[in-house]
Structures are given as structure tokens and as C-alpha cells.
Write a structure and sequence with these properties.
The protein is an alpha+beta fold and 215 residues long. Strands 1, 2, 3, 4, 5, 6, 7, 8, 9, 10, 11, 12 and 13 form a 13-stranded mixed beta sheet that branches. The longest helix has 14 residues. The protein is globular and about 45 Å long. The protein starts with 18 loop residues before the first strand and ends with a strand.
Length: 215
């Protein structure tokens, strides 16, 4: 995973919203079964190094997998789910192949070269790309061109959130099982997932991102 950078701890001042930051990457994956996966991999977060998985089945049923009750409560208060499972979630990396495993889930995928958008994101200075002002500037472009992607908005729990996308790589060569079902081959993330105010890019990819939530 590309270099995570601080700050990762909650920050704020009296009378202002407290900011909580998750620094890492998000994998957006579609499958032939119609199930879509959004995997958050966070080396730096207020909850320590953690991985969570948001699953939306073909019938629209939305499930959260989170390794601790504290993290599950925070995510469920920020996004919308029909079911929450507190369960061990582990991630691993060998070469360019990633693996995410939970008792009900097994996913492996390969992360390869950048698409055009990845090159554009990587060209923006990090000092600019990590600011909330930049997410405000590019949000209209994301809405118009990227399959329901948003970089800022209000969450289902009434919190404000910003996504600072820093880089993007393609995901290929997927194998995935969930609840004993083979999810099939890799497909675009379509239809868009409905956990929060925005989706992930339609093309399966790993986005290097700093996520900021204002409480």
C-alpha cells in the first residue's frame, strides 16, 4: 500500500467539529454474482491498523464486516447497513496480490498499473490533494464523470465527510467467496453501492485515500 501519512488521530477545538481521519486505501470490487465489495484498509486510524468490508448483495442487502465493536459502531453511525457483523478481518500482501479474510469471507485480487485517472491523481501535490478545499473543487467533476463518485458530502448519520484521493491502481484477477458462495469473476462496480452519499469508481480499483469525518 502506498505510504500512509499522519495525522490519523482525532483533532478539533472547543466549539468546532472533531475530525477523525482514516489514512490508507479503499478497494472497490464488482463480481459476476452481482455482489459488490468496498474494502477499507487503514494502517492509520483512531482504532489502530484495521480493515473493514462493506458488502452489497445483488438484492440490495448491505452488510458491514468490522473487527471490533467500537469500529463497527463508528462505521454504522456514518454509513447505512441492513446487517452488521463484528468479526475478525485480516489483510495480507504478497507481491502485487492482496488478500482479505474473515470467517465468512475470502478475497484475493491483484493490484496493477494506474489508469489515466490514477496518473492524474498522483500528479497532484500531496500537500494540495490532502486538503478539504481540494475535495470541494473536484467534487463536481467526480459527480459528472465517475459513476456516482463523490469526494464530499453528508453521511446518513448527519456527519460531514471528505475523501482525499491520492492515487488509483487497477484491480485484476479476483477470487472471492462470501457466506459459502463463489462470487464469480471480476466485474464493474455496477450498480453503484448505497452505503453512503457516494460510490466507488465503476472500474475495479484500489484508491489511495485520506478519509476525514467531522463529528
Amino acid at each position: 500500500m502506498p505510504d500512509p501519512q499522519p495525522p490519523a488521530e482525532p483533532t478539533g477545538r472547543p466549539g468546532r467539529r472533531r475530525l477523525v481521519r482514516f489514512d490508507g486505501a479503499i478497494a472497490g470490487i464488482g463480481t459476476a454474482s452481482g455482489t459488490r465489495l468496498v474494502i477499507g484498509m487503514w494502517p492509520r486510524s483512531p482504532f489502530g491498523p484495521v480493515t473493514d468490508v462493506m458488502v452489497e448483495r445483488a438484492d440490495g442487502h448491505r452488510i458491514l464486516l468490522a473487527p471490533t465493536q467500537e469500529l463497527a459502531d463508528f462505521i454504522a453511525a456514518t454509513y447505512a447497513f441492513d446487517e452488521v457483523r463484528v468479526t475478525p478481518v485480516r489483510r495480507g500482501l504478497e507481491g502485487d496480490r492482496w488478500g482479505v479474510v474473515a470467517p465468512d469471507l475470502a478475497v484475493t485480487f491483484r493490484v496493477q498499473g494506474r489508469p489515466g485517472l490514477g496518473w492524474l491523481l498522483s500528479a497532484v501535490p500531496r500537500s494540495v490533494a490532502r486538503t478539504r478545499a481540494w475535495t470541494t473543487v473536484i467534487d463536481p467533476v467526480a459527480r459528472l464523470t465517475m459513476h456516482g463518485v463523490r469526494t464530499r458530502g453528508e453521511t446518513s448519520g448527519g456527519r460531514r465527510e471528505w475523501y482525499s484521493a491520492l492515487d488509483l491502481h487497477r484491480i485484476t484477477d479476483l477470487t472471492a467467496e462470501f457466506d459459502g458462495q463463489d462470487l464469480g469473476e471480476l466485474r464493474p462496480v455496477e450498480p453503484a453501492v448505497r452505503f453512503g452519499f457516494g460510490s466507488t469508481p465503476a472500474e475495479p480499483g484500489l484508491t489511495r485515500v485520506l478519509t476525514t469525518v467531522a463529528l
